[in-house]
Amino acid sequence: MTSTVPPTDHQGSTTTASDGLLHFPPSSALALEPHLPPPTLNPNSSSKPGSKPFVTLTFATSLDSSLSLAPGVRTTLSGPQSKAMTHYLRSRHSAILVGVGTAVADDPGLNCKILSPSGLGKGVREQHPNQPRPIVLDPSARWKVNERSKVVQLARLKQGLGPYIFVTREGMEKVTAERRKMVESVGGKFVCVESSLDSKGEAEERKTTGFVWEDVLRTIREEGLDSVMIEGGGSVINSLLTLEQAGGQELVDSVIVTIAPTWLGAGGVLVCPPRAIGKDGQPAPPVRLRDVSWHPLGEDVVLCGKILR
Ligand SMILES: NC(=O)C1=CN([C@@H]2O[C@H](COP(=O)(O)OP(=O)(O)OC[C@H]3O[C@@H](n4cnc5c(N)ncnc54)[C@H](O)[C@@H]3O)[C@@H](O)[C@H]2O)C=CC1
Ligand SMILES: Nc1nc(O)c(N)c(N[C@@H]2O[C@H](COP(=O)(O)O)[C@@H](O)[C@H]2O)n1
């Protein structure tokens, strides 16, 4: 099901033609630069494996912290300008990650629809060459990805890259040869996320979410991807924020949130991690951002910052 929260297609003019390609002005892009992976990290490079990719946590939210009207309801929150901003972010990261809940609910494209700047100079409308690698966290291989999935169709059309679907060893056993072949035929693959040695906390994390973040980020790096934007959905974002809240692990490098001027009401998919409790049993200091900047884009505002540690 798809739902658009009115008003959405208000300010117009970032999509300028029927090809659906978006324009994000260089002046707005410049303002985001301090919050993006260093430009030396080439979005399409296959760099040597290291410890962790650059991680940007980015999503669009309502004023009541909802990502969507309800689980399974694709909800448009971003206006045209902030949508173009998100697609610009996609051109600046090697990978884009969502949880399987989002893949099933939204059937997302996860490509970059920004106009190529080199084409623009010559008056040619062509798609940006930097396409992020879509990653879907699907521990038990429940996403029935197929030829009709938007991400597969876009990869076939060479308008995006084939998805990497992260599964556990047990999940991998459930993947049929047919499905594996289909994903591989568009340049994607199923990737087994091997678990590192378990601490008690990690075993708990794996039990509740399917994956330990450290393992996921290590695997992304091992795949030669040096930056990733994590888009959602609610469970993915909340589990990441819970770890940031607990301290000790510094996973998120940058946070970029689009805030849309609407309340979705009760029943939405919320960004709302559980309150942290300190060793003394009292509420621990909440997660907060530092180096914050606010960027109005159309009727939305985009908040950028880094997690205060
Ligand atoms: N407004 C926005 O920017 C966005 C909105 N959404 C919305 O979010 C909703 C989907 O959110 P959810 O149902 O919460 O699903 P989700 O997309 O967060 O996926 C959750 C699943 O991911 C898997 N997973 C693996 N490792 C995990 C980990 N470490 N932490 C958490 N999950 C892990 C688990 O199987 C879990 O069930 C949809 O309605 C979608 O439209 C999704 C992305 C962005
Ligand atoms: N930035 C942003 N604004 C919204 O209003 C949204 N609903 C989302 N959702 C995310 O974008 C994915 C869909 O986009 P494509 O089909 O890939 O163009 C969706 O799955 C969410 O991850 N984001």
TrEMBL record:
Q: Per UniProt, which keywords does this protein have?
A: NADP, Oxidoreductase, Riboflavin biosynthesis
Q: Which residues form a coiled coil?
A: none
Looking at its record, which EC class is this enzyme? oxidoreductase
**Catalytic activity, per the record?**
2,5-diamino-6-(1-D-ribitylamino)pyrimidin-4(3H)-one 5'-phosphate + NADP(+) = 2,5-diamino-6-(1-D-ribosylamino)pyrimidin-4(3H)-one 5'-phosphate + NADPH + H(+); 2,5-diamino-6-(1-D-ribitylamino)pyrimidin-4(3H)-one 5'-phosphate + NAD(+) = 2,5-diamino-6-(1-D-ribosylamino)pyrimidin-4(3H)-one 5'-phosphate + NADH + H(+)
Supply the InterPro entries for this chain: DHFR-like_dom_sf, RibDG_C, Riboflavin_Biosynth_HTPR
Instruction: Give the compositionally biased regions (Polar residues).
Output: 1-18
User: Which biological process annotations from GO are given for this protein?
Assistant: riboflavin biosynthetic process
Q: What GO molecular functions are on record for this protein?
A: 5-amino-6-(5-phosphoribosylamino)uracil reductase activity
Give every Bacterial bifunctional deaminase-reductase C-terminal domain span. 53-303
Q: Which SUPFAM superfamilies match?
A: Dihydrofolate reductase-like
Q: What is this protein for, i.e. what is its function?
A: Catalyzes an early step in riboflavin biosynthesis, the NADPH-dependent reduction of the ribose side chain of 2,5-diamino-6-ribosylamino-4(3H)-pyrimidinone 5'-phosphate, yielding 2,5-diamino-6-ribitylamino-4(3H)-pyrimidinone 5'-phosphate.
Q: Which family does it belong to?
A: Belongs to the HTP reductase family.
- What is the protein's given name? 2,5-diamino-6-ribosylamino-4(3H)-pyrimidinone 5'-phosphate reductase
Q: Which organism is it from?
A: Sordaria brevicollis
Q: What is the lineage of its organism?
A: Eukaryota, Fungi, Dikarya, Ascomycota, Pezizomycotina
